[in-house]
Every structure is written in C-alpha cells, then in structure tokens.
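Hey team,

Filing this mostly as a record. A colleague (T.K.) asked me to run one chain through the structure pipeline before their review meeting, and I want the input and output archived in the tracker in case anyone asks later how it was produced. No errors, nothing strange. Just documentation.

Input sequence:
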Amino acid sequence: MRARDKVAVSALRATLAALDNAEAVPVDEAQLRGMALEQSPVGAGATEVARRELSERTVVDVVRAEATERLEVAAQLTAPAHVDRATQLRAEAAVLLRFLDGVIQ
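Output structure:
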C-alpha cells in the first residue's frame, strides 16, 4: 500500500464499503411509513442503532462476491475500447483473491 498501488486501493475501498453495507441493520418499510412526524424520535443519537457484527465466514463471502462480480463484469467487457477497464477489474479481483488466500489458510 505504501507504493500507492491504485488497483489494490480501489479494490479494498469498494470491498470495505460492501462490508459496511453488510453490517447495516435492515429497516422495516412499514415502520417508516406508519410513523407520524410528531412521533419521530428526537435528540442526539435517538435514531442510532447498533450495527450487525459479521462473522468471519460472512466477511469471506462478501469479499468473494466482490471478486466474482469484478471477474464477471470483466468477462462482459469484450469491446476493444474496454480492454483497460477489464484489465483493471481482473487485477482488482486478483488482489481480493490473494487476500482470501491469506485468510482461509
């Protein structure tokens, strides 16, 4: 990372965002629609809720899904104009898969 590897940084930032999204607690739509303004919580932190803790297996699944998605998109980019993007996506997938190799061993 000190060498400012742009491919690795891009892959890891996107994967961290995916992990952050996976930790989010789902909100019930009925709960959102049924609340009147005067009944809504007030005050600092009134709407905060604890995030889910992901198991190691779930984290591995999210990282694997990110790598798979990149490989699938790269396979679809067959036009000569998209060669650079497809190469970048394959390189990002390789970074994520190397990370998984280190974790799963």
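Quick notes for T.K.: The chain has a mean pLDDT of 84. Helices lie at 6-23, 29-33, 56-76, 83-104.
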